[in-house]
Amino acid sequence: MCGIVGYAGKEDCVDLLIDGLQKLEYRGYDSAGIAVIQNSHIEVKKTKGRLADLVDKMETEGRLKGCCGIGHTRWATHGEPSDINSHPHGNERISIVHNGIIENYREIKEFLIEHGYSFESETDTETVLKLLDYYYKGDPIDAIAHVVKEIRGSYALGILFMDFPDRIFAVRKDSPLIIGIGENGNFIASDVPAILKYTRNYYLLEQNEIATLTEKGVDICDIHKNPVKKEIQVADWDLDAAEKGGYEHFMLKEINEQPTSIRTTISPRISDGMPYLEESGMTKEMLKSYSRIYIVACGTAMHAGLIGKYVIEKLAGIEVTVDIASEFRYRNPLITDKDLVILISQSGETADTLAALKLAKEKGATTMSIVNVKGASIARESDIVIYTHAGPEISVASTKAYAVQLSVMYLLAFELAYAKGAITKEECMRLTKELQNVPDKIQDILVLKERCQFIASRLVNAESLLYIGRGLDYALSMEGSLKLKEISYIHSESYAAGELKHGTISLVTEDMPVIAVATQSDLFEKTVSNIKEVKARGAKVTMICREGTVDDKAVANHLVTLPDMDDIMMPMLALVPMQYIAYYTAVLKGCDVDKPRNLAKSVTVE
Ligand code: M6R
What does the pLDDT look like over 255-264, one tens digit per residue? Predict the structure, then answer.
């Protein structure tokens, strides 16, 4: 939610800020702006719309030039997308960009109005600007320290003070911000891809630490002005990973990267043919000790947890509860110190998942996170972290992150099952080998894109779709349905196939296409019966199943067949046609696939 960049250095920073914002546009894209110190003034250009609109605006109205500046790409929270509400907000002596939400902005605003301030925008950010202005008496750190003591909520702030034209200031709480260490200057950024072109070295800023960046270096202190020493982090993501690399969209590229992402994620966690998660700090003794597991996450990550539930319960015989993080945090879950709470998050910054983690810790549970972004808050705050190695996922619709989250769920299930004595070593090795075979199988399935393109052409005019399945197929179809609706804007619902006749089948007509997933051998016949029920009511059915299990047309109108694997592994194969179907439907509808309306990649607000 909102992307921030900033630079203080030797070079003209305008291209550098635009380039950084382009890498962060996935975080929000309803307005964009930059502020630079130019000829002893803070100059701002900002506009409603995409970053491209900002670039156009500068071409028409004149480019900015300066060696010290900040930039922002917005996902609106307070106030509609408009030029006025866009960041940076500022006056002649201070300019700021903000990612997060200031919860007590109304009372601060009232206080400031009483002290003679007036407001132009509807944003909470403008109250931070004016509060900084109120406290600023010549020392930026003093002013920032005063402000962070008064504001409540989440924030990552990049700040320019005109009195200090060669530096930028930054502070964060509960919203991500890194400090990039370059050769000719230093950076702030919401995420690593924004700085990768210039440096791999960065610092992680902790809660309420204040950073001062100049061309020569970075000083970090706490709010009492005590200096803080930092360890340099080194980004291990490829520069190319944040580029489209010839693909039309990031989503298509990321679907195609899944075999590599899975291999890179599982290989270091397999030793002598057995799952090996001990490097994360999760020992076999710990695994044996949990009586219950909670998996908490949002969106796609939560769907990965649902697959995890089926697999862990089936193999290890441990009860698993899957929760949506925004529900979990307010439902007073009955967690004890004997439980394991697993948080899954691609970004590692999702506000609700982070709050759920804090709640689980308060209740004494062991917390384990499965996170893709190194050093993200959820990873840092959990007891145990397993990093997925998908590389940067830029498209808002999650694909490869889901695939790697699933692969970690499988490894964990195998290790748990073996530790609990629920499966033999031989069975554990067989399952692990089967997981290692997944990347090659997915590589083969990637050629199904034309088949999926054809199916998408049959769905593109639908107003509403139904996804059905049983067991693991049902869990997977939830993700298929989310993928379709978030990028193509076609309404869809995922339903347990056996539950249809208890109400939902009344929706089924010839205008309601159905996508049925039927990869589970023990449930296959039952799902086929459910498919026949919807087909008998006119629905055109696309069926995703194993090769050779069904005769074309007799059961479904369109078939997508997958190579054979162990039943529990089939979701890892069936996910590909699900993703392709959503992708090509959105492309055929002319949707902005990588930046769907109203969404942002990293949901750092509640
Ligand atoms: O970064 P996270 O994995 O915590 O994000 C959770 C969801 O916001 C995310 O999976 C979202 O549902 C995706 N846009 C779905 O494609």
Answer: 999 999 999 9
Q: Let me know: does 254 contact 346? Beta carbons within 8 Å.
A: no
CB 287 within 8 A of CB 419: yes
CA-wise closest residue to 141 among 228, 70, 41, 13: 228
The residue annotated as part of the active site, out of 2, 13, 68, 298, is 2
Catalytic residue among 109, 130, 309, 601: 601
- Amino acid (1-letter code) at residue 554: A
Q: How far apart are CA 244 and CA 415, in angstroms?
A: 36
Mutate to test the pocket of ligand 1, among 494, 603, 604 (most ligand atoms within 8 A of CB): 603
User: In this structure, which residue's CA is closest to atom 12 in ligand 1?
Assistant: 299
Ligand 1, atom nearest to 599 Cα = 14
Question: What's the CA gap between 9 and 211, in Å, rounded?
Answer: 15
Given the CA of residue 397, which atom of ligand 1 is nearest to it? 16
Instruction: Quote the pLDDT of residue 69.
Output: 97
In angstroms, the CA 394 to CA 196 distance is 14
pLDDT of residue 78: 83
Give me ligand 1 centre to Cα 384, in Å: 21
Atom of ligand 1 nearest to the CA of 402: 10
- Residue 398 CA to ligand 1 centre (angstroms): 6
Contact 32, 3 (CB under 8 A): no
Residue 31: helix, strand or coil by DSSP?
A: strand
The pLDDT of residue 552 is 63
As a whole number of angstroms, the distance between CA 99 and CA 108 comes to 18
Distance from residue 83's CA to the centre of ligand 1 (Å): 28
Q: Given the structure tokens 């962070």, which residue do they identify?
A: 148
The pTM assigned to this predicted structure is: 0.88
Average pLDDT over residues 212-217: 96
Rounded CA separation 495/323 (Å): 18
| 94 CB neighbour count, 10 Å cutoff | 24
Distances in whole angstroms, Cα of residue 249 to Cα of each of 196, 299, 587, 596: 20, 21, 10, 12
**Cα dist from 21 to 274, 348, 470, 499, 602, whole Å:** 43, 20, 43, 46, 15
Q: Residue 518 to residues 410, 449, 546, 549, 598: CA-CA distances in angstroms?
A: 20, 19, 8, 9, 33
- Taking only the tens place, the pLDDT of each residue in 10-34 is 999 999 999 999 999 888 888 999 9
C-alpha 481 to ligand 1 mean position (Å): 14
Q: What is the mean pLDDT of residues 240-246?
A: 82
Per DSSP (E only), the strands in 59-190 are: 68-74, 89-90, 94-102, 153-161, 168-173, 178-181, 185-189
Binding pocket residue ranges, ligand 1, CB within 6 Å: 298-301, 345-347, 350, 353, 396-398, 482, 486, 602-603
Look-up: residue for tokens 């549970």? 365
CB count within 10 Å of CB 121 equals 18
Using CA atoms of 580, 586, 591, 596 in order, give the dihedral in degrees to the nearest 10. Answer: -70
Indicate whether 358 pLDDT > 90. yes
| CA 205, 211, 213, 218 torsion-angle sign | negative
Q: How far is the CA of 264 from the centre of ligand 1 (A)?
A: 21
pLDDT of 76 over the 90 cut: no
